[in-house]
Amino acid sequence: MSRLTFWITALATLAAGHPVADCSSKPPAFFLAGDSTTAINGGWGNGLLAPLKSPAWGVNIGKSGATTASYSAGGYWANVTKHLRDNVDKYDSYVTISFGHNDQKSTSGVTLEAFQANLIKFANEVKSLGGTPLLTTSLTRRVFPSNQDHNATDSLHDQRLAAIAAAKATGSTVIDLNEASLKYVNAIGKKAAQEYNYGDDKKDTTHLNPHGEVVFGRMVADLIIREKPCVEKYFTPNKTLSDEIWNNQPA
Questions:
Q1: Is the dihedral angle over the CA atoms 84, 85, 86, 87 positive or is it negative?
Q2: What pLDDT is stored for residue 164 in this prediction?
């Protein structure tokens, strides 16, 4: 590269707000670890991956019913780390780590302290393999108390704080989906929020129907781009949807 070409590229990149030295020359790959709120058929994961532009790509390794403990014991985490080992040399590899819905259940056998420790272990392993962990707080449930149509129950508050603490302990990035999704459903209200509910009867307030997958997948994409702006060019933009989300309009 000539010196002139370098500086033209550098100035263009700086104008876009992305210092040259900060952006990898490798395209990104996204490996999604999580429970059913990430997984295929009811989670946001495929909604995140669908707008990726080649050569960027990703794999949804979410598992319905998983806790941080069962995900590891069942071999799903080993699948994540295999993808990292196989691809980290050619791709800037990101791992979203999003658990909590099942860990918090009294029958899970996972205390809040163990939950946080498991997240720390996951994040440290991703880093040791050359990947970038994205500690992604849990998608909010769309449950509203009676006569409180703009005040959804903050049922994953403790899990959110544990994920943030795990990110701080490991020097990892937080993707605060819980905060963003809770603010959004409170803003648009119960009736609009439950349009994203899973199932023909729309009574499942935890999982997402196909349109909900698109909306909250876009939300996660936008949150990642805010934290990692170099990946923006690898996502097909959807300005209409992003504007609706961040302006608190039903999408």
A1: positive
A2: 98
